[in-house]
Specification:
Layout: H1 5-23, H2 34-55, H3 64-68, H4 71-80, H5 93-104, H6 109-128, H7 143-174, H8 179-200, H9 222-235, H10 245-252, H11 256-267, H12 271-287, H13 294-300, H14 306-317, H15 321-334
């Protein structure tokens, strides 16, 4: 009984999330992006599942695997945000192959669809293990959250692949006796996955293609770092709450991949950790004022949320802001 309404409920929730995503976006960027396309297709996919299995519309059986294998590439593109080009057509190849497989040898679908999900889960896993230059759109203050959401989506893709395999086995052995519970799990995982995608989506600029010289290896990273450090200090870029690697690179005049490499080589940390350390140093000067509210310090130091501020403060200083302020007041009183 739960199988019939739940996919429609999921579809409605996804559409609401899509509207919420577009509402919170910068009005100057009203375009339809990868994440919008993912939400829209996920809503359509959930609706098709409800129509196919809830109302027995057999004509949708050949369409469902095609739309399903388009979801992982869109999830991947939502994190990478590549510029529109002909190269993106390669990501449509699994859908084309699945379509022809359905016409020629339908049993191949049972293996092809999970493999696509697992392949893109692996690609996202590689992305999550990389540097900020792989996700230049993400706010540097929220990089840890974006990575956490990315790994959550990886888990959702893996669970979806396992569920598809379980459904195929169930049909082979019982004729689909456990289709309802398995489908509920898939729908729940879908909601979790898209929720994590929404959580990781921060207002940012669309990724733009870089010139060819931006990928050239530079043995001596010190000049690049000096340029980055000077630009950050002069323009107080670390206090920009919407700062991401792409914006930082443009402001300091150094390609994003070289910014990331230079900071890592000279400071021994990634860009987000370095920028957040500068923000914490700025916050310390303000926390010395006992009348200054911690919430004011958070937002004036370039952080967007209390959680990211407290996480980075503990990482850099080793204790919470309130404890540090109390101890600092005691030291000043003793002096």
């Amino acid at each position: 009984m739960l199988l019939i309404p739940f996919p429609f409920l999921t579809s409605a929730v996804l559409l609401v999330l899509l509207l919420a995503l577009r509402a919170m976006r910068d009005p100057g960027r009203p375009g339809f992006g990868y994440l919008d396309a993912f939400f829209a297709l996920a809503a359509v996919q959930s609706l098709l599942i409800g129509l196919r299995h809830g109302y027995g519309i057999q004509g949708l059986a050949s369409l469902l695997p095609v739309t399903a294998v388009l979801l992982p590439p869109l999830a991947y593109a939502s994190f990478v945000r590549p510029p529109l080009s002909r190269k993106l057509l390669w990501h449509a190849l699994p859908a084309v192959l699945v379509f022809f497989a359905w016409r020629v040898f339908p049993p191949a679908i049972d293996l092809a669809v999970p493999l696509v999900f697992l392949a893109y889960a692996a690609r996202l896993g590689v992305l999550g293990s990389g540097q900020e230059s792989d996700m230049p759109w993400a706010r540097l203050s929220d990089m840890a959250s974006s990575r956490a959401a990315l790994w959550g989506v990886v888990a959702a893709l893996v669970v979806s692949a396992v569920a598809d395999i379980a459904i195929a086995i169930d049909f082979g052995r019982t004729g689909g006796a456990f289709l309802g519970p398995i489908s509920l799990v898939v729908q729940a995982v879908t909601l979790i996955g898209v929720g994590l995608l929404l959580w990781s989506s921060v207002p940012g600029e669309a990724a733009a293609p870089e010139s060819e010289d931006m990928d050239v290896e530079v043995p001596n990273r010190a000049p690049d770092f000096e340029a980055v450090q000077q630009g950050v200090q002069e323009q107080m870029l670390h206090l920009d709450p919407d700062l991401n690697l792409q914006r930082l690179a443009r402001k300091v005049g150094v390609p994003s991949k070289r910014v990331s490499a230079a900071v890592n080589a000279v400071e021994g940390v990634n860009v987000s950790q370095w920028i957040n350390r500068l923000r914490i140093e700025h916050a310390l000067t303000q926390l010395r004022d006992p009348d200054r509210l911690i919430l004011d310090v958070i937002y004036s130091s370039g952080f967007n949320t209390k959680s990211s501020f407290h996480r980075e403060f503990k990482r850099v200083i080793g204790e919470t802001p309130s404890v540090w302020r109390t101890q600092h007041a005691h030291r000043e009183a003793a002096e």
